[in-house]
Specification:
The chain is of the alpha+beta class. 29% of the residues lie in helices and 25% in strands.
């Protein structure tokens, strides 16, 4: 099994930022309890207030797939129906480590 690193970008519609942030924040606790969750951290983009980014690391693609199919992800999607400017952007990352291995990859 190979670890999977993801950036998930959330862009709310204007005026929906606080409500979307609150909804996505509810994902932290149940996701942290999921099998294979190594990192699941929610960040706000300083230069673009309202835009959110999850930095995620999963033990395997199967664990990520189970997360994507979870009830809490479905509930958050339903709660945010019509509040996002575009679908959540999922970016799969591949580390290109160099230098100090402990500082060169998520």
């Amino acid at each position: 099994m190979s670890a999977v690193t993801i950036l998930a970008t959330v862009r709310p519609k204007p005026g929906m930022e606080a409500e979307v942030e609150k909804s996505f924040h509810t994902l932290l606790e149940p996701t942290h309890a999921e099998q294979g969750c190594e990192l699941y951290a929610l960040h706000r983009v300083v230069e673009r207030p309202g835009e959110l980014i999850f930095v995620e690391r999963w033990s395997s693609a199967e664990d990520l797939a189970a997360h994507a199919a979870s009830d809490h992800i479905a509930a958050c999607g339903a709660a945010c129906e019509g509040m996002l400017a575009e679908p959540v952007e999922i970016t799969h990352l591949e580390a290109l480590p160099g230098g100090d291995p402990g500082k060169a990859a998520l």
